[in-house]
Structures are given as structure tokens and as C-alpha cells.
Amino acid sequence: MPIGDLGPELTVLLGAVAILILAMWLPRDRHGWCAGLTLAVLAVAAVWAAAQLGAARLTFMGTFALDGATGWTRLTILIATGLVVLLSPRWFVTDRRHGEYYAVLLFSALGAMAMAGAADLMQLVMSVLLSSITGYTLAAYHRDWELSVEAGMKYFLLGALANALMVLGAVLIMGMAGTTAYAELAGRPPEGPLWQIGLMLVVLGLLFKLGAAPAHGWLPDVAEGAPAPAAAFLTVVPKLAGGLALFRLVALVPDDGALRLLIALAAAATMTLGNLAALWQDDVRRLIGWSSVSQAGYALVAVAAAGRADMALTALLVFLAVYAAANIVALGVVSELRGRTALSDYNGLMRRRPLMAAALIVSFLSLVGIPPLAGFLGKFGLFLVALEAEMLWLALFLLANSVLSLAYYLRVVWAMVFSDPAGEVQTLGGLTPLAPLVATAALLVLGILGAAIWQDPTALPPMVMATQAEGG
Amino acid sequence: MPSAGERTARAASIALCALSLLLLVLVWAGFTPGGGFQAVEEAPWIPALGIAWRLGVDGMSLALALMSAVVFLASVAWPMDPLPRARAYYAWMLFLTGVSLGLFLALDLIVFYVFFDLSLVGMFFLIGRWGHGDNQAAAFKFFVYTLAGSLLILIGIIALALSMPSLTFDMRAIIAERPVGAGLVGTLVMIGFIIGFGIKTPIVPFHTWLPPAHVDAPGPASAILAGVLLKMGTYGLVRIPLQMMPESFAQWALPLAILGVVSILWGAFVALGQSNMKRRIAYTSVNHMGYTVLGIAVAGSGLGSARAREAALDGAVIEMIAHGLITGALFLIAGGFWRRRGDYELAHYGGLSASAPKLAGATMLASFASLGLPGLAGFVAELHIFFGAFAVYPWLAAIGLLGLLVTAALFLQMLRQLFFGEPHSALDTTFADLSRSELFILTGLLALVVLIGVWPAWLIALIAPAAGG
């Protein structure tokens, strides 16, 4: 059992513990040190993860898939978490539990990393629980602020239900199949209703992580009520992991049509619901939340193409990564603006804070998929795999929803660029603006350097489960 | 008086547009008509997806790129003072120049799509910042509507690329391979392209975004929108469905031709009913793009003689170029009216030929060219189109001819209202004539219109072999 295989995860775990202890001893005005230490921990883990990118094997008795997909997702999770850390110090500086926040953040990132590599249902359940429980804490971190507590409660109630059902589902599958290991489940069609129900329940649990219908209700509230940096984390990192975990699960099941159709229907419903709800929002944070729901729907398109299109996995990973960058820009700008949320607060931002306004415009255009921003590459990949999987109807849903989404993104763009400024704009300052600017640069550059992130699927190490499914 | 920054920005923009034009003329000088794609540049972009930075020209795209460079040069040179935020204005104009030239020069479908989409972004900000009236609604409608079209095109492009033996977006390879035959896939892709490019062109019934976008955009932006951006739709129609999937195109040629004729008539009659100068010119664009679409449909019909079809395609390409120059000039003139009076209502003007004879002359020449007077560029184009159309769809061609009559009526009526009769108010007697720079720009554009009208052979020699291939 080569312990080094889980090096990045263990680094994050030990780092989280160290920060927790440090935060207990440090005087409160020095809690900012914890942010620096967190960044160092993330950097070590990222270097370690990068060194393992070429691996392709199951490890820890078949519970963890160390393959290209895990490597890629680990890296994006670590980078996304690092950007969130940059957003945080000024935001939490007055918080009594400032230091502990970073520990919770790391635990949550750990849950996501474990979820991304899970190759066993028990491991999957454990990682989802870790990611969820820390998530509730992050959402409700402002204990004295009603909206934050409400967001946490809503997230918790929905999550508790989804997670309980997911545990039930895992138990049902274990009972019927006699195993929880993906290697043994791969390629076996679910026999009997209990097994099928179990599978549905596990899928539901992962839809909750993705923020996809029918378990999407928490997302707009978290985007609105959670501390803005925590919202940036919670709308991004669980999706990165949940998307890959769902893909692995779907890829286990032979393609008889039913499961993929169900995912495709969830995709269509999620994107349409998210966009229709966002269309009427005058609250920018809720708008970003609903847009994030619709983006989860887009991601499901690639999941529905699992096994039907060669590049489905690549499309999913690229899409989620560029989505992550764009959403961190959006909520990063919100953080820098001290959480301003009414649309009218954004009037004339282009004149008052041109960099932040430009970053938000780039982020929104990237979320629409306007080339040559990185978001185009993500959307393009989804269209490609939807058509390759012969799901023209889903591609048309994707099209209609992209057009719909443009309408509400443009409302914000219009307010920022063409409306007159309302008043003075207060900002957080410090390192906070750095995160959205770095992510914006990534959006601008990665589309043009597309070859750097979109590689030939045969050049990447194969997804471990997929190869075993073929063998079995 | 324009500020120093504004003058520098304008001078720099003129210089850069002139440089683009110069470089294109150099390519033209080394161009062998009928030699296929030339001046090809290729650089890797995303090899795993068969996407690369591929640029090059054939006769059709070179002619369109040259025309675009001329229209852009004229538009940035057109005096715009007083102009708020001049530097941003010129930046966006240059952005659009690059994007438009890139689109016509692209030899990769994804590069083509990138520029197609970026043109929307540039236009959105131009209409938003420098437009007038209800420009928010106009800009939104423009962006949302045309994005829907461009995504349909993206789906079609991907379907074409997936049908290739190995995934590639190289236009030359797809034109050579013609991977999609007539069948369900061909039909679906074809419908996607007709609607997608139809929105951009615009063909009735997908044209409703156009009039508000034009009316509320600043004059030079309208000149670019009508002169250059609309051509992206018809150019795409020729380059992609016509050349890459001729079998499916032939099946859909008749419906497309009918849409073309509907656009001709609809554009002409609705234009006749407009009292707003800019709306009237905008609707004549629908009419003229209708001729172009008719010509393209005839060319791809697979019916009639090859000569007739070639003539129709030549006519369609000449119409794109002629319309770019003529309507560019007309919209610049309309911008001049707005600059002087802030008013587009035809009824608020009268008898301007006394106070502004040069303006009257230029407007008359442009209008005559637009209505297809022999000896001017529009005539050459429409002659070719109808020559082909009568050989293939005689009834449709006969109905389409009606459009010519109505166009003549609406331009003559507009000229009479503006320049003859009694002055509408005292303002008309002191209406400022064309300034030296305005006169210079319009003379340049209209000289080309006359040149193509009296001696079209050089243009036909440039485009014909490429378009026919």
C-alpha cells in the first residue's frame, strides 16, 4: 500500500490539522498567518499531485483511482482552493474564528479530492459526507448574519436528506451486488429493482454535490448568503469533484440507454431551470448562483455522453475547469466589492473599478462560451460530445440555454458599462483582487493556448475504471 | 474641436486600416485567379481536435476582404465629432476591422466561428455606447438573436467535422471531402446553416433584429454592420453549405430561393413604408441581401445550365461587394444627417439641393447605384443574378423583379423629399454641405461603385474561378 499515492491528500489533511492547532494558539490579530500556511500546504500538495499526473492504477486496495482524471481534478481543486484563500483574509479579518476557517476549507478540499478519486462506493460516501459537512460550516460561517445561517441551514437540510439517501443507495448496491468496489461493479448491468434504486440514490447524492436538479435548491441561497469567498468555494469545488465522481459511476454501468437518458434529462432540466430563474434576478449573487445551477446542467451533458463519445471525459474535465475559473472570477469580484449584491450597486462599475468590471465581463462572456475565451473551449467540447453521442436534442437544449443565459449576463454588463455610477464603491483590497485577476488571465489565455488543456485523450493516461470495464 | 487624444486615435485608426488595405492589395498583386486557396498560413492551435490557425484567400474571400478594408477605412475616417470617449470608439472600430478581416481570411471552421462570434461582442458595445434612442433594447436583441444563429452554425460545423474520416476543421479538407451526403444528417445540418446564416444575413423572417440595431447605432457603425457584417452571413452560406455539402444544398435550394425572394419583396415594401431615413436604408439591406441569397440558391440548385449557375454566383458575390460599398456610403451619409441635425425623419427635411449640392449629388449617386441603375455596381450584380435565376427558377425571378421597381420608387421618393421641393424649415436653407473629408471619403467609395459598374471584368476575373469551384 504505497502511502505516497495519497500524498497530496495526506498533505492537505496534515496541513488542516496543523492550522487548526495553530489557530488555537495564535492571537487573533495574527490569524492571517494561517492563510499563508494554507497556501503553502496547497502548493506542496499541488506539486505532489502534478508529479503523479502520469499514473494510471488503482491504489489502496482498489478504493482510489490514481489516473489522469484524478490528477487533473486534484490540481484544479487545489488551485481553486488557493484562489479562494487569496480572497479570504480581508473578508474574515474581523471574524473571531478566522484561523479555523482555513482548516475547514482544507478539510472540504480534502473531501473533494477524495471524491474525485473514489473507486469504491464506501470511499465515495465517506468523501461526499466530509465535503458536505464542512460545506455546511462554511456556508453558515457568519453565525450572526441571518442570510448566512439560512444558507447553511438550507444546504444542511437538503444535504442531510441527499446524503442519507446516498448511504442507503450504497447499502442497497452492496447488498445486491455483493461488493462496493468499482473494479468488481464495472460492466455489470444493475440486476433487479433494489440495485437500480440504489444506483439512482447514489446518483441523486452526486447531483446534490453538483447542484443539479432536483437537488439544486441550496445553490442560490449559498451564493447569496454564505460569506462571498466561501460561496466561491462552494459553487466550484464540490462540482469539480462531483462531476468526475458521477462520470465514474455512470461509466460503470453498461450503456443500455436508461441511465444516460436520465442524466440527459437531468441536464436539460437543470440548465433550463437555472437559466429561467436567473433571468428575473435583480440580485447579482443569486443570479450567479442560478447561473451556477445552469452550468451544472451543462456539465451533465458530458456525463450523459459517457461511453458514447471518445472525448466525453476530456470535455467534462475541461468544461468544469474553465467554469471554475469563471465562477471564481465572478464571486471574487463580488468579494472584492464587499459582497455588494443588488444589480443597481453595479451601475457604472466600469468607470469606478474598471479592472473588476472588466474581469466580471470576461467571466460572464466565458460562461456564455464566447470565443476565444476559455469558456468557449468548454462549451465547444460539450457540443462536440453531445453530437458525437447522437443527442442532437440535448445539443439544442444547450444552444437555447446559452442564448437565454446571455440575456441575463448582459443585464449586469449593461449596468456596469452603460449606467451611471450610483455612489462610492467600497472594496476589500489586500490580496482579494488578485484572485479574480489571476483567474481572468487564465480565461483569456487558456482559450488561445487551447492545446495546453485540451489534449488528445489517447495521450492522457486512461481512466482506470474505463479500461477495467472494457476488460471485464 | 476634437481633442488631441481624439485626433491621434483617429489618425492611428486610419493608418492601421490603410495598412490592412495595403497588405491585402499586396496579396492581390501576387494572386493568381483560379489558383485555389493562396497566401496560406498555418499554425497549430488544438491538434487533438483538428483545429489550427489556418488563414488564406481565394478570389471570393480576397474580394470581400478588400471591400471590408475599404469600408472600414471609410468608416473610421468619417468625421464623428463631437464624439464622447473617442479612444474607446476607435479601439472598438479597429477590433471589428480585425475580426471582420479575420473571418474572411479564415480557412478553419473554428477560426471562422471565433471571428463570427467576436463580431457580435464588438457591435454590442458600439451600439451600447455610441448608439442613440432605445439602444439597450437594440443591442440586446442584436446580440441575443445573432448568438442563437451562431450557435446553430457551431452545431452544423461540428457535425461536418465529425463526419470527416478523422476529426478536422480544415475548410479545404472538408470542401474536398464533402463528407455529408443528402440524408437526415444533411437535412438537419442544412436547416441549421440556413437559419444560422439567415439570421446574420438577414433573411426574412429572421431579420427583425436588424432595423433597431441600425437605427440606434452610430452612422459609421451602421455602415460596418450593413456593409461588412451582413456579408458574413452570405459568405458563410457560400463557403460552408454550398461548397461543403452541395448535395443537401441542392435539395434545399428552392426553399432558400423562395426565402430570398420573400426578403427581396418584404425588404422593398417595408422600406417604402418607412418615414425614418435610416430605417428605410436598413430595410433596403434586407432587400439587397435577398438578391444575394437568391443568387446563392440558384448557384447551388444543380438545375439549369452550369453557365447560368456560375453567373448567379458571380452576381451574388458582386452584390455583396456592391452592397457593401453602396450601403456603406448611404449609412455614412445618414450619419452626416444625424451629426448636423440629430434627426432621421425624412419629412423634416426638404429642398436641401440648394443649400447642400455636393451632399445631394453624392446621395443621388449612391441611391441610383442602390436601385440598380445601369452603369453602376448594383446593376452588374443584379443582372448576373437574374440572368441565372431566369434560367433556373423563372417564376421566382419574375416575382423578384418586382423588388427592383419598388426599390426604385422608394429611393426616388426619398431623394425628392430630401433634396427637392420647398425647404421644410429655415434650418434647411442653412444646411451644411459635405465637408472636405466627407466629400473625399464618399468620392472614394462611389468611384469604386462606378468603376465596377462600367468595367466589371476585373472583379469578375478575380472572383469567378474561385466562386465557381
Structural write-up:
The complex is a heterodimer of chains A (472) and B (469). Chain A has 472 residues and is mainly α. Chain A has one domain. Chain A contains 21 helices and two strands. A two-stranded antiparallel ribbon of chain A has the order 1-2. In chain A, a hairpin with a 4-residue loop joins strand 1 and strand 2. In chain A, helix 9 runs antiparallel to helix 10. The longest helix of chain B has 36 residues. In chain B, strand 1 and strand 2 form a beta hairpin. Chain B has 469 residues and is mainly alpha-helical. In chain B, strands 1-2 form a two-stranded antiparallel sheet. Chain B has one domain. Chain B has 19 helices and two strands. Chain B starts with a helix and ends with a helix. The interface between A and B is medium-sized, with 32 and 33 residues.
The most extensive interface between chains reads: A-B, 32 and 33 residues
Low-pLDDT ranges of chain B: none
Principal-axes geometry of chain B comes out as globular
Termini of chain A, distance in Å? Answer: 24 Å
Kindly report the spatial arrangement of strands forming the biggest sheet of chain A.
1-2
**Gyration radius of chain B, to the nearest Å?**
21 Å
> How many strands appear in the DSSP assignment of chain A?
2
Residue share in helices of chain A? Answer: over 70%
- What structural class do you assign from the helix and strand content of chain B? mainly alpha
Q: Name the quaternary structure.
A: heterodimer
The sequence of SSEs of chain B as H and E is HEEHHHHHHHHHHHHHHHHHH
SS-based class of chain A: mainly alpha
Q: What is the number of helical segments of chain A per DSSP (H or I, 4+ residues)? A: 21
* Beta-strand residue fraction of chain B: under 5%
Question: Helix count of chain B, per DSSP?
Answer: 19
The Rg value of chain A, from CA coordinates, equals: 21 Å
Largest sheet of chain B: 2 strands, antiparallel
Unreliable stretches covering 5 or more consecutive residues of chain A: 466-472
Largest sheet of chain A, described in full?
Answer: 2 strands, antiparallel
Beta strand % of chain A = under 5%
Order of helices and strands of chain A: HHEEHHHHHHHHHHHHHHHHHHH
